[in-house]
Amino acid sequence: MAGFLYLKKILIAQCKDSLLISLCQPPFQYTAYLIDSEYDNMQPIIITGGPGAGKTTLLKALSHKGYLTFPEVSRTLIQQQAKLDNGVLPWTNLPAFAELCLVMMNEQRRLAQKGAMPAFVDRAIPDICAYLTVGGETVSQHYLDAAAGYASRVFFCAPHEAIYQKDDERPHSFIEAQVIHEQLIMTYKALNYEVMQVPWGSVEERACWVLARL
Prior knowledge:
The chain has about 210 residues and is of the alpha/beta class. It contains 8 helices and 5 strands.
């Protein structure tokens, strides 16, 4: 790990102009780096679950251990669209918002596959299918087709009432968050992914639990 972090510093110092994207440019912010390499078909590892499950905190912990991580596309899109006069938001036009997420998540997956090491993504295209189902919308075949191409083992973090807080991007009640979580599990299983339930614990314990099961 120390060798990887040293290599990371050297590459960033020498190849700033050749990075595929900026470290601070939305909507694809991430906390490690990308380079073209022989690892062109590396499948991203999904961390998902209902709102308020500590996913973002877990992703940050994995980043601090030197792993490539990508943030939640939907949250970034909500922040961006909310600033527009006719912005597309999931609670006003879920089908249109789903299409935006699909475009961004497809690109995120493409970038993740070019990493020099396994990449973790905060939610993925199967999540779109689950949210459409919860919203009573039809899940078109193109979503189901696009839902492949990730690592088969998916790590689920369940909503935890002790840390749950509503905000502008998370307007759901805790009960609604639990419903979303259960639908996510059903959707991923239907898409033939292996569901791994991350036990509750400290951030370090959760990160180590995930890494021990890669």
